[in-house]
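Morning F.,

Quick status update on the modeling queue. The single chain you submitted on Monday has been processed. Sequence for confirmation:
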Amino acid sequence: MSAVPSPYVFDATAANFQTDVLDASFEQPVLVDLWAVWCGPCKALGPLLEKVVGEFNGAVRLAKVDVDKEQQLAAMFGVRSIPTVVLIREGQLVDAFTGALPEGAIREFLLRHVQPGEAAAEIEEALPEPETPDQAIARLLQTIAAEPDRPELKLDLAVALMQAGDADAAASELDALPANLASDDRARRLRGQLEFARSLKDAPSAGELLARIAHNPDDHAARDLLGVRLLIDGDAAGGLDQFLHVLKADRGWNDGLAKKRLIAAFNVLDDAELVGTYRRKMSSLLF
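Structure tokens below.
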């Protein structure tokens, strides 16, 4: 907790969670920090969360949950690694992240959801440009050199390498992770992204694939590869639409690959609303 008590930061327990977090979130969003005393990244993240929440001057509150003391709450959120931070609004989880983000990234995360008041607008104006993958790689390499005993930084580096398009380097970092981090949600998503990237080895360009589809709309192989390209390039809905098209046309094509692609995509995407929408679309075609 902060050295100076803050009216915007409090400890959440099973006893007060309904009233002080879920019910209170109908009045203002509540950021929930799931942490533990023994967790090094939690100790680094906690003060940054408190600082940023304080800058919002009451537009958002921070609930601290010690997962060792509050195992029921940790189980409710399905926590697999810490720190895990979730944002609750109107009684619902609307966004989340894991790992120790930099201060600027925390501000950016909150500003996506908290209605800017006068103070928040000033924060938004002062917000630095988002960190590029290359900048993140440089920062993480420097930090890892200074703090080699923090293996969680290697997972951060693997994610940044993948975002920069260096799948081979990302895979090397991922394979070198200790067992406890290898099962982290971010590691699982990264493995899925790497599988998609590997499927594009020696694949035609997006333009060539589009030309093939224009010539033959039933070219399922072209649609499949185009879907993977769109997914990796950030057009998740466009990629999922291609997989759905193949599934609708021929669910058994290539040993049911379209269904497998959809399920794999659901496991790597962070957008719960988008995933829910496309899960329903897939189910409507299968059942």
